[in-house]
Amino acid sequence: MALKNPSAPSPAVSRVPAMTPPSGVIHVNSRHTSHFTVVGNHLAQHRELSLVAIGLALHIQSLPAGARIGIKCLTARFPESEARIASALRELEAAGYLKRTRERLPSGRVVTRTVSYNQPGAAPCPVARPAQRAPRPEREHEAKPPPKPRPKPERTPLPAPRRPDPAGARTAHRILVELRRDDPRLLLSEADVARLTPAVSAWLERAAPPDAVRRTLTADLPPGLRSPAALLAHRLTASLPPPLPAAAPAPARPDPLQTCDGCERAFRAPQPGLCRDCRSARAEAPPP
Hints:
By secondary structure, this protein is mainly α. Among the domains are: about 80 residues, Arc Repressor Mutant, subunit A (Orthogonal Bundle), CATH 1.10.10; about 70 residues, no CATH class. The protein is about 35% helix and about 5% strand. It contains ten helices and four strands, in the order ααααββαααααββα. A hairpin with a 6-residue loop joins strand 3 and strand 4. Helix 7 packs parallel to helix 9. The termini are far apart.
């Protein structure tokens, strides 16, 4: 019988569990004896929460009472943006893992209180209160009044003709549709053409030549043109020409020359007859 070699190294102990699944994750677990947090699978495997929300809930449940968990504090702690953290907090509120309320302090300031639930809907465990007073949750942030929204500038309405003119409307429609021939970027939708047609009709009503309207709309287009309809609306409104002044009335034509029936002198009158002198002499002559 062969003797065992006492100097031979013992086989290495595998850290992989004996029952290894054919695929998927393999767990190598060690027992925690301190600094750990118990988290339910209802949170860790929640099917409706995002990974950011699940990780944030785990972080919040691991914090001691009174820790700050405002958006500013969490943004300083993690690389996620304020928008993503705020969205994750709203997810946890909707799922019942967080409850945030606002309270007004005796000083008049408003603060936000946050309560974390490790198992939404379950009865809380009774906690033995220590003899000394438990620390109150710190104020996360003071509510600031929302900034007043800036009033939006009123948009100048598009010009419109004073009197409807079907022929002018057809010409205005053709001008807008054919702008794409000057520049393909000026391809307009039917809705844009219908909206801008009255404005072009107003230009034509003010005796603007169609070619001049087209040149005004297509000249010096910006290189990064994204909204041709908005640009055309601005030009049609800002560059609207004034109406032409009313034409002066034609001077009255003098009466035609007539030959007096009494003295045969020429005089001006609308109808043939006697001149002024002959009419006066006839009026002063005594009756026969």
